[in-house]
Each structure stands twice: as C-alpha cells, then as structure tokens.
Amino acid sequence: MIGNVAAVFLFEWKRALTLPRMAWWAVLALFPVFIVGVIRFTMPDEARRAMNPIPAEQIWNFWAAMFYALIPMLVSMLGTLLWATPAISAELERRSWVYLTVRPNGGTAVLLGKYLAAVTWVIPPALIGLTIGVPLADTGDGWRMWWAMVRLVCLSCPAYGAIYLMLGTLLPRRALVLAVAYTLIFELVIRFIPAVINKLTVQFRLQALLVEWCNLSLAGPGGRPSGVQALIGDEPAWQHVSILLLLPPVLLLIAVAILRWSEFSASAESDV
Amino acid sequence: MAALIDIVEITKDYGRFRALDCVSLQVESGITGLLGPNGAGKTTLIKVLLGLVKTSSGRGRLLNYELGSQYREIRANVGYMPEDDCFLHGMTGVECVQFVAQLSRIPEIEALRRSHEILDFCGLAQERYRTVETYSTGMRQKLRFAQAIVHDPPVLILDEPTSGLDPEERVIMLNRIRVLARDHGKAVLICTHILPDVQSISDSVVILARGRVQVAERLSELSRPAEPALEVRLLGSPERFTDVIRGSGVPIESRSDGTLVLRGAPEELATQAWQVAEQVGVGVRSLTASRNSLEEIFLNAVREGGKP
Fold this sequence. Notes:
- The complex is a heterodimer.
- Helix content of chain A is 77%, strand content 0%.
- Chain A is mostly helical.
- The relative contact order of chain A is 0.13.
- The model of chain A is unreliable at 266-272 (pLDDT under 50).
- Chain B folds into two domains: 5-88 and 146-222, P-loop containing nucleotide triphosphate hydrolases (Rossmann fold), CATH 3.40.50; 225-289, Alpha-Beta Plaits, CATH 3.30.70.
- Chain B contains eleven helices and 14 strands.
- In chain B, strands 6-7-8-3-9-10 form a six-stranded mixed sheet, sandwiched between helices. In chain B, strands 2-1-4-5 form a four-stranded antiparallel sheet, with helices on one face.
- The interface between A and B is medium-sized, with 28 and 41 residues.
C-alpha cells in the first residue's frame, strides 16, 4: 500500500513539472511578495510619515494579519483547492479512473498519493513567499514572524488539502463548485459568526494560533476586551494544534470510506 | 475443475433501470467471448466482476474469490483492458506501463523491466519513449493491452481489444491473445462487437441481451448444426455434380451463393464428393462441415431476448 501511494505521489509530482503548473506555482510563491512589496515601497510618503508615529505593536499586528491573509490563508487555501479538489474528477474526465481503480488498493493509493502531492506542492511556494516577503516587509523581529507563519502553513495546507479532497470525493462531478461554496460559506462567513459553529472551521483554529504565536494584542481602546476576542476563543494552543493535526487523517479516512462505497466508474461511462 | 467465474442470480439496478436481470453464469478457463448488443449489460457485468459496482442482489465468485467482499484479491489477479481510451497524460508509454505495474504492487525496478518486456511483446518498439498523447489509435490499443497484462494476471478481461486496429494489427492482436491463453494458461474474457474475432479465437461464448444471459455454451457445440451436412463449393458447372450426388440418394440443395449442401455425415460425404467431382470433371474449391455461423447464433439469441 505504501509503495502504491509512493508511486502515485511520484507520478503526480512528475506530472506537476509542466509549464502551466510551474507557472501557477510561481504565481502562488510571488503573489504575496508582490503585494508586500507594493505596500512596503509604493505607499505615498505622506502615508509613510503618517505611519511613523504608529506604535511598533500596531505595525507588527498589521504585518502579522497581512502575512496570515496572504500565505496560510490565501496561498494554502487556493493551492490545495486547485490541486486536491479535482483528485478524482480529473481522472474521471480523462477516463483513467477505471484503469487506476482496478489495481489492488488503486483508488485509495490514488487518493492518498494525490493528497500528499497536493500538500507538498503547495507548501514550498508558501515558504518561498514567506522567506522573501518577511525580510521585505521589515516587520521587526522578522524571524519570529517567519517561524509563526511557517507553522501555520504546515498546519493549514494538510488540513485544507484533506477537506478539499474529501469534498472532491463526496461529489466529484461538482467538486470545485462544492469546494468554493464550502470556502466562502464556512471559512469566510460562518468563521466570523461568534457562535459555537465557528469552531468547526479551520480558520478559527488558525487565527487563534496566529494570535497566540504572534502575540497579537486583541484589547480594544482603553484595554477593554474587543469583539475579536469572542471570535478567537480561549482554548490553549496545543488544543488547536492537536485538532488541526487530527483533522487530515480523519477526513482522509472518510474520503477512503466514501470511495469504497461509491460507484464512480458507473457514472463515468455511458455504456451499460 | 472449479469454474473461473461462477455467478448466481446477479441483478444490478441503476435507479429504475435494470442493467443485469438475474444473471447466472459459469465460465470455464480458456477464451470466452462475451457478446451482446449495446445496452445488453456487458460492461456492467465486467464492473460487477471487478467490484467497481455493487450488485443489487445475487452472489458470485471469480477465481474462488467472493465478488464484492474480496475485490482486492480479484483485482490483483485480473488484468482489465477497458474500452475507453484512457491514458495518463504527460507520460511516455513505458512510464505508463511501469506506473500501473507499480500500482499492482510490483517494485519499481522490476516494474520497469517488465514494462519493457511487455511492450516488446505488444509490438511497441521505439514509440515507447514517446508521450502517450502522440500515439496513434493502434498504439494506444497496444498500450492498454500492455497495461492489462504487465502484472501477469491469471485472468484477462478485454473490452473491445481489436477495435480501431487495421486488419493486419487485428490478426496480430488476436494471436497475442491466443498465445497468452494457449501457451501461458491465461483465462480470457473478451467483450467485443466483432463476431469474426470471437469465432476465430473463442472456446466458449456468452451472449447477453437486455441484461439476461441468452446463450452460454462452448462454441463447438453452438456451431454444430441440427442436422449434419457438408458444404461444397465447386469450380465449374455444378449441374452434373448435383445430378450424380442426388442419384446416389444423398439429399442435396443449392444456396443462393452457389454453395451446395449435402445432407449426411460430413466425413463420409467428403470422400464421395471428391470422387464425383473427379468423375464429372469439376474442381473443388472448398469442402467444409456445415456449421452454424456465430452471426446467426447471435441474431437468434438477441431476437429471442428481445421478445416480451
């Protein structure tokens, strides 16, 4: 089984080394750098002067939020959405799914191999973006910022990869639509509803860890508790990390179970 | 000897559509042709055998493995060549075959060695180093065949293995299948619309129509006519030949294509026919024992299956 997964993983990486995919890879790596560069160097002088009196803590908070939005959020989400979601639908469209699944454990190997390939494909551009972007931003204590973001990337990519893969297995014919709907509804809307339901989102965990690891201040004016505190919760970091680490194997198991009980090949071919 | 495939009253419904209707079937080793018009349930039956779809009811075994529950063992022992033109983009032919060999649990180096060996057998020479997108229809067919046999399975299920091949390549492909079955002991199930292919290499025939088995029999039995006869084709005028044969008390009739049909035991009639032909001065183009054609058998089975 491990050999099968490794074969699919290497095969997927070989397939990823094509010009269009490498172009996407470069876009994912350089887009955050570009945005950071634009903010850092094209800000009007007046605005820069206006920022000067701003306390270092607020500048730190600004860059932490910016890097978080650009890399563990945008790059991880978009990258895994693009590569993990169509794991099955792409093979169904190419009609190669039947070919792969008639091998012993073929379907499971394809699923897990593609998952690993998607995650390892997205993490490097995220790290490159961080490694170039953090020194460029001149955040002050750049090493701490970089290390916090690296940990968030390494937690977000496997978690989102597993979610999108599971959604892609659940409804392969509408995989991308389902994944985009999930992202918009759950991760971007429900996440900001101050209720228990927002604890079901990955963003809730990641943002809580961002606050913890970047030591962000959530206090409102005059040191009063702000509304943001209610969105972050008060669970300890180890709990968030544990849940994020546990999420991928659980979701992958669900995806494998769905695969086991589904009849994708039946709908893939018109012949009876 | 246990049957290679033994299925009992298998039914498969796709929603309200019944693709397989109480199919019971026993397939022995050798080459078996699986025939049927479009929508007869051939592909569904193959998918049931491979565990790709679940049955609505019924049970069965393939190579003594339970259908449905022991699908891993079944897949490890079956080589499947699907009808669809499915190839893995961006890879060379040899990489494709190596990849599916690895998926069949063959270690990387051994998979590569076997891939070259199988591609040699399948007649893909230097083309094996080209990406599969550039392959012609015939090359793709050979590649799909190579992928099906690379892990040396005891059972092969081949869906339309000769479609899209030119006549010469078709004969070569059928020879490859024959070699695998006769010299390497593989059991082969061929699903095709090309009846002459089945007639030329199959030991047995299964005909499906409307989700039901209409015929499942050895080809030699099916081909045997109800009444033994000898078919004679002559070079020259048949009138005197016909008169002499009829005069000897052998019933004889002439078909529209000029073939003469002599009723009786073919072995005895053949000697007589040679003698009479020599006597009346006509040449003999062919002498064959009368057989039911597969086309006739197929059409009868499908028509009977079509009756309400």
